[in-house]
Amino acid sequence: MATVKQSAEKEYTVEEKLSTLYQLQTTMTEIDKIKTLRGELPLEVQDLEDEIAGLETRLQNFQDDIKNFEADIAEQKHKISDATVLIDKYKSQLDNVRNNREFDNLSKEIEFQGLEIEFSEKKIREYSEAVTKKKEEIVKLKETLDGRKEDLDQKKGELDEIIAETKQEEEKLREKAKQLENQVEPRLLAAFKRIRKGARNGLAVVYIQRDACGGCFNKIPPQKQLDIKLRKKIIVCEYCGRIMIDPELAGVEQ
């Protein structure tokens, strides 16, 4: 017995396709409004988080610099201690020299160790000044960091509040959009998304307004307006590429 294989997918008329696309467009527009309500807050929050991370890295580097300078100071102090011990040793040997040559050698060693002490003391002053400067920079940096953290907390609070207010509504809209997308054939849906992405206001489907395209407002010839009203084929604006429908299908009274 012969059986007729039926298509699992429902065949939609052009009018049904256009109606579904317009519903999808209005749904996506509502989602866009929610995103607009959030404004630049998500980007501002991200920028502040990045800036804070950079400031914290800089703060850690300053603290590491101070530790290194303090280690250098300790090393120079150790050199001064060693040089002082040698000077005392050489001075005690001066009392027991046997000739002028030994006296001159010891005197030169004492002088050399004295110069070493002076050099180390100079380095200690330089390192100490660097530590003081770094500490001053850390104080300023911490003030800036605290300010940025306060800004971040405020922005996050504003964003969380908006998200909390709109989350449920956005979820419903996205679910509705998903259901509508399932009713649109893949190629037409891809074209819709491409047009929407390229449109400045996110409108891929527009209705005729005052004999003009509702997207770019260029005039539409009467014959094309009639074709659009008949809903027998999908017609796009020759100027902006948006899909056009008649006002009645959009539920708008002229």
What would you note in describing this structure?
- The chain has helices spanning about 15-40, 40-95, 100-180, 185-200, 220-230, and strands at about 205, 235, 245.
- By secondary structure, it is mainly alpha-helical.
- The protein has two domains: about 15-35 and about 180-245, Helix Hairpins, CATH 1.10.287.1490; about 40-170, Helix Hairpins (Orthogonal Bundle).
- Strands 1-3-2 form a three-stranded mixed β-sheet, sandwiched between helices.
- Helix 1 (about 15-40) packs antiparallel against helix 3 (about 100-180) and helix 2 (about 40-95) packs antiparallel against helix 3 (about 100-180).
- The longest helix is centred in the middle third of the chain and has 82 residues, at about 100-180.
- The protein is rod-shaped, with a radius of gyration of 40 Å.
